[in-house]
């Protein structure tokens, strides 16, 4: 059976990396059963076999893959039906929009809460590496959440307008664009108590539909969001 | 023959409205010949027959249509091949991204130059209406172009990354997403001398490909950009 190494909190089931979520959703999309292997940031040795220090790592027989995009490409080639349409440029745009607009907007609000969420043994490592990256204490980087929330919600405007007219970015059914964006929202939902979406938001309603997919798979994951 | 009322500068051929450009490109996409009817902002009476004060206005036999999105929907229904795929949610996202991210980022840099570009008889009207909308003199609204240019270019990052991997947003051929985004760039190109794109940018290279489409149709339009 396919094995997926996923970043987990103290609770093995609380998987929260947006890059791992992409793969989890893609596997469900294709109806492929898999075994989730919880992994923590400081367990570099456990994934060294895949020549990487980061998850997701996917093991499928002889195949040992890292890098979420490469894994998606592998899955779509090896298990073509139903397709993820990896060769479509518009879908690629959603990858970059998610990584370049959505993630940066979110991380400034949730980084201190991610620190509280990661496994106890990862906390010092997480703080040290992230404070080096951002050049300041996590708490300073995450200050003024309210102002940032307004900016973040504004950055979702094109998504919001689209989801007023369609059930999913894929139209009547979810596709890779939905999975990519939703993975970002699961990152926040699993790590931070602050609700990022207002309940009357079309993005909120869409997220509810995404939470319902695959027999409520995403809804069943332990989360910290108060919503 | 189909007639398209388009916003023009003093030169009848210098059409610069991004909403009109969408229709112009859609008509070329479908290989539909049309007659361009140059129109100026103060000529409300000339389009009153279509029950609107704004262009684009499209006349096709008995049909008299305004609103660029409604016109696109009409064209795609009436002339289905080749399709614009108006019913695809991902493409709708590009409409909203263009209108909500790209246009606001551009207008703050080019509004004073648009004022110099509009037909002489439109200038007072343009200044009065826009200064009322923005609550300040056009020159003030357009100040600090350099800082805004940096922000604008950053806002194109998801587009930039996508166009490093694909020739067009439609993949190997342009589709509605390309037309929507390119229409925005034609707005700037036709009205403002300041080059918005660096020549080494993948967005620049893509724009060159778009300028080449339909026997260089867009390239043949008088422009003010020094690039």
Per CATH, what is the topology of the largest domain in chain A?
Answer: Glutathione S-transferase Yfyf (Class Pi), Chain A, domain 2
Q: Decide which structural class fits the backbone of chain A.
A: alpha+beta
Biggest interface pair, residues each? A-B, 25 and 25 residues
- Low-pLDDT stretches of chain A are none
Oligomeric state? homodimer
Adjacency order of strands in the biggest sheet of chain A: 2-1-3-4
User: Can you count the helices of chain A?
Assistant: 10
Mean pLDDT of chain A: 97
What share of residues are in beta strands of chain A? 5-15%
What does the model show?
2 copies of one chain form a homodimer. Chain A is α+β, with helices and mostly antiparallel strands. Chain A folds into 2 domains: 77 residues, Glutaredoxin, CATH 3.40.30.10; 132 residues, Glutathione S-transferase Yfyf (Class Pi), Chain A, domain 2 (Up-down Bundle). Helix content of chain A is 54%, strand content 9%. Chain A is built from 10 helices and 4 strands; from the N terminus they run βαβαββαααααααα. In chain A, strands 2-1-3-4 form a 4-stranded mixed sheet, covered by helices on one side. In chain A, helix 1 packs parallel to helix 3. The radius of gyration of chain A is 17 Å and the shape is globular. Chain A starts with a strand and ends in an 11-residue tail after the last helix. The relative contact order of chain A is 0.14. The mean pLDDT of chain A is 97. At the A-B interface, helix 4 and helix 8 of A face helix 4 and helix 8 of B.
């Amino acid at each position: 059976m396919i094995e997926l190494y996923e970043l987990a909190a103290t609770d093995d089931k609380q998987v929260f990396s947006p890059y791992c979520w992409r793969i989890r959703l893609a596997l469900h999309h294709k109806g492929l059963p898999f075994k989730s292997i919880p992994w923590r940031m400081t367990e570099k040795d456990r994934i060294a076999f895949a020549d990487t220090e980061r998850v997701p790592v996917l093991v499928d027989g002889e195949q040992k893959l890292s890098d979420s995009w490469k894994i998606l490409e592998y899955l779509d080639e090896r298990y073509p039906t139903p397709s993820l349409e990896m060769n479509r440029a518009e879908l690629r745009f959603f990858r970059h929009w998610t990584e370049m607009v959505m993630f940066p907007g979110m991380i400034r609000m949730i980084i201190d809460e991610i620190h509280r969420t990661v496994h106890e043994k990862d906390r010092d490592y997480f703080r040290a590496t992230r404070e080096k990256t951002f050049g300041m204490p996590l708490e300073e980087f995450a200050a003024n959440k309210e102002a940032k929330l307004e900016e973040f919600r504004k950055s979702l405007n094109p998504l919001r307008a689209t989801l007023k007219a369609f059930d999913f970015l894929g139209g009547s059914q979810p596709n890779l664009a939905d999975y990519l964006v939703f993975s970002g929202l699961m990152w926040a939902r699993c790590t931070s108590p602050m609700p990022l979406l207002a309940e009357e938001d079309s993005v909120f309603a869409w997220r509810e539909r995404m939470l319902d997919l695959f027999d409520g798979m995403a809804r069943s994951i332990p989360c910290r969001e108060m919503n």
